[in-house]
Design brief:
Strand order of the largest sheet: 3-2-1-4-5-6-9
CATH class: Alpha Beta
Order of helices and strands: EHEHEHEHEHEEHHEHEHH
Helix content: 40-55%
CATH superfamily: NAD(P)-binding Rossmann-like Domain
Strand content: 5-15%
Bound molecules: nicotinamide-adenine-dinucleotide
Largest sheet: 7 strands, parallel
Number of strands: 9
CATH topology: Rossmann fold
Number of domains: 1
Structural class: alpha/beta
Number of helices: 10
Mean pLDDT: 95
Low-confidence stretches: none
C-alpha cells in the first residue's frame, strides 16, 4: 500500500522552542541565532572560533534578553565534542529534547585532489560532511523526543553543481555538499517512516555576503594577511544577498515546512540551468552563459 502524500505541518512559531545552531559565530549562523532569538526561541550556539562565538552570544543576549542563550565551543568534525555539546545542552537548557538543529557550520578550501595537501582536503570535507552527519546522529534522539522538530542541513549550490567555474578546483567542498544534499533527501523518507513528526530541510545558498573566505583560512589553521582580507572583502561585498536576508529566507522555509530551500536568485537560476542542461554543466562557458549572477564568487 502506498502511504499518504508526505505533508509536514508548518512550524507556526519559534517561540519557546529550543534550537542548536552550529557555526553561530559568524555569517548565516549568527543571523539565524539573532532571528530565532528575536522570535522567542532559546538558542544553543556552537562554533570553533571562541571570539566570534562570544560576540554572537553577546549580540543575541543584548537583542533578546528574554530567551536562554548558551554558547558552546565545539568542532563539528569531532564526535567527542558533539557528545559533550549534547550533554551541555541537556544540562544548561534543562531539557530532554530540542526542536531545531541547524547544521550550518562549513568551510571552504583545498579544492584539488591532485595538488592540494590531503589533510587540508579532508579537513574541508570532514567539517562540511561529518559536521552534518555527526550532528544529525548526535541530536536525532533529542529531535524525535520533541512533539515537533526540524533538522536543517546547509548544503550549497555546490550540492547540485560541483564547480565554481572552469578556472578553479572545488572537489572537497562539492563532494561534501553533494553528500549533505543526498543525505537530507534520503532522510525525508526515513523520517516519514520512522519519526514523522521530525521534518528535514536542505538549504542551498547561492553567493551570500559572509566572511567565509577569511574564516575558512583561520579554521584551517592559516594566518590571515592583507591578500586574504582583500579577497574575503571582495567575496562579501560583491554578494547579491546578505547573511541576514539569507537567514530570513531559511527560517521562512523552515516554518513553511519546505524540504528544499534555495537561497538567492543565483541559486534558483543555477538550479534550473543544471537541470535543463546537465551534460553541459561543466563546459567552460556554462557559468558565463548564466549572465552576471556569479560575479565575485571566489570560493
Ligand atoms: N557564503 C556563501 O556564499 C555560502 C554559499 C553556499 C553555502 N554556504 C554554506 O553556508 C554555511 C554558513 O556559511 P557562511 O557563509 O555563513 O560562513 P561563515 O564563515 O560566515 O560562518 C561559518 C561559521 O562556521 C564556523 N565553523 C567553521 N568550521 C567549524 C567547525 N569545524 N566547527 C564549528 N564551527 C565551525 C566558523 O567559525 C564560522 O563562524 C556553510 O555551511 C557554508 O558552506 C555559504
Amino acid at each position: 500500500m502506498i502511504p499518504p502524500p508526505l505533508h509536514y505541518e508548518p512550524m507556526d512559531s519559534f517561540s519557546e522552542k529550543i534550537a542548536v545552531v552550529t557555526g553561530a559565530g559568524d555569517g548565516m549562523g549568527r543571523s539565524l541565532a539573532l532571528q530565532l532569538a528575536a522570535a522567542g526561541c532559546h538558542v544553543a550556539l556552537c562554533d570553533v572560533l571562541a571570539d566570534k562565538l562570544a560576540a554572537t552570544a553577546d549580540q543575541v543576549r543584548a537583542a533578546s534578553p528574554n530567551v536562554r542563550v548558551t554558547s558552546h565551543s565545539c568542532d563539528v568534525a569531532d564526535e567527542t565534542q558533539w557528545l559533550q555539546l549534547r550533554d551541555d545542552v541537556i544540562a544548561e537548557h534543562n531539557t530532554d529534547h530540542i526542536h531545531l538543529l541547524f547544521n550550518n557550520a562549513g568551510i571552504a578550501g583545498s579544492g584539488s585532489m591532485i595538488v592540494d595537501d590531503r589533510d587540508r582536503w579532508e579537513r574541508t570535507f570532514n567539517v562540511c560532511w561529518n559536521g552534518v552527519y555527526l550532528g544529525t546522529r548526535t541530536f536525532l534522539p533529542l529531535l524525535t523526543a520533541a512533539p515537533e522538530a526540524r533538522l536543517v542541513n546547509t548544503s550549497s549550490v555546490n550540492g547540485f553543481w560541483a564547480s565554481l567555474g572552469p578556472d578553479v578546483s572545488h572537489t572537497a567542498y562539492s563532494a561534501a555538499k553533494f553528500a549533505v544534499k543526498g543525505f537530507s533527501e534520503a532522510l525525508i523518507t526515513d523520517l516519514a517512516i520512522n519519526a514523522p513528526h521530525v521534518g528535514v530541510s536542505v538549504v542551498m545558498p547561492g553567493h551570500i555576503g559572509t566572511g567565509i573566505a577569511e574564516n575558512s583560512v583561520v579554521v584551517h589553521g592559516g594566518e590571515t594577511d592583507p591578500g586574504v582580507t582583500e579577497m574575503a572583502a571582495t567575496f562579501r561585498n560583491s554578494a547579491p544577498m546578505t547573511a541576514d536576508e539569507a537567514a530570513a529566507i531559511i527560517l521562512q522555509g523552515v516554518q513553511e515546512a519546505k524540504w528544499r530551500i534555495l537561497v538567492g536568485e543565483d541559486a534558483h537560476v543555477l538550479d534550473m540551468a543544471v537541470r535543463a542542461d546537465p551534460e553541459d554543466a561543466y563546459q567552460p562557458d556554462f557559468r558565463e552563459r548564466l549572465g552576471n549572477h556569479f560575479d565575485g564568487l571566489v570560493d
